[in-house]
Amino acid sequence: MWNPDLGAITTTDVASDGACLYRALSLGVHGTEEKHKMTRTAVLDALELEAKCELASADVSAAFAPEGGLQAYLQRARRPREWADGYVIEHLMRKGFSGKTVGFFTQTNTRAKRVGASRAPPDVAIMNINNVHFVLINPANTSQRAQAKALANLDACNI
Questions:
Q1: Residues 22, 78 contacting (CB under 8 angstroms)
Q2: pLDDT at position 151
């Protein structure tokens, strides 16, 4: 598989149990998918805090407002086999996780297409396969590409 920003990529699969996004994120951040429950809790706690801050701000039109209200959404999202959705993905793309930037990609034939406007190599890259399963893009892809871009920038600046 190929991505213009990452080059040739390989992925690591995780369990398909409804927690695959949290498993892939846990694998990318903690080195194991087994911390997916802790990862889900931390992500949803951060999303809840962000949403409450938006609701308290003057610009309520931009506030996070899922159908059924915030508390009902969070109650559903905290269920062990509940799939992550667009709210979680948007939050992770904006805020990252555990001090790391998170990038999302979708698989289209043999290419990995970046979701969102950022072109910077993420610390953790996650791919959605056929809109039903998330996998981790192997870290070597993101770090090697980031190093190559950094060296190219240094060369271009004669540093």
A1: no
A2: 46
